[in-house]
Amino acid sequence: MKAVTKTxxxxxxxxxxxxxxxxxxxxxxxxxxxxxxxQLIPFYxxxxxxxxxxxxxxxxxxxxxxxxxKRIFTNDQRFFDSFLFTTKFMLAAVIISNIIGFSLALLLxxxxxxxxxxxxxxxxxxxxxGLLLGFIWQFIFVRGFSAIxxxxxxxxxQQPWLGDEKTAFWGIVIVFAxxxxxxxxxxxxxxxxxxxxxxxxxARIDGANSITILTKIIIPLILPAFTICFFLTISMAFKxxxxxxxxxxxGPFNSTQSVAINIYQEAFTNNNYGLGTAxxxxxFLVVALFTTIQVMITKKREVEA
Length: 305
Description:
Blueprint: H1 2-49, E1 52-53, E2 62-63, H2 67-74, H3 77-108, H4 115-127, H5 130-152, H6 155-158, H7 165-192, H8 197-205, H9 210-221, H10 223-238, H11 242-247, H12 259-269, H13 273-304
Antiparallel strand pairs: 1-2
Helix pairs in contact: 2-13, 3-7, 3-10, 4-7, 7-10, 8-9, 10-13, 12-13
């Protein structure tokens, strides 16, 4: 009798475990399959193809070892020029986007009647697709600014914004910051709303001015938000492609060519898929290094604060 009861209990436990497993599999399984198919498998295939000479079309692939990587570091000046441009763009875009996003968050965290409308208005550019946004701003820079320049004779609007190396660089930075600042603003607002108002009131009673409250209380308390925003803007700025290709196409004379455009042209225009994937692996490692260092530094600041 005891043996039968024990067998039934074991059978019941197995059924319960199977039911739990099937429940977890039903929820996690589809996401795991998509992650494997869309992320992991193409990534490992990219690593394999980076050691081959393949045009991306034919079925024949030739194993070349590390020749693609040697070529990148010894005989591809354009790739390093695109890396230099992308790094400079990243630094400028990250600083400007976060300053604007944080400033808007401070403004719209106040008791304004129209703050919800303004939050929506500032966030809308982030919803617009990069290619569409780029073509809109291309029209503004080429047609709109020239028309304003003719009416006002202001030198700022009379410049060849997308036709000169320096102004084209700042044109891309302006559009990127305009698009992404609203997204950063939302993150900063969420962090500001978690700050205890009693701390701010106590500081005001003790005689602290607005700058002291901002630098000594608010910013240290919301440093995790800065960590997130810096991480997002660094990765987005490094991977810029759609805005870049729709605004300047990498011109004039490849002076504004991002790494993503360089990789795209190598793989799909020049049909050097093996070399293009090798460049993408190098690019991945550099972006991973930058973002890891940034997270480590800002996380350390959080602990100190």
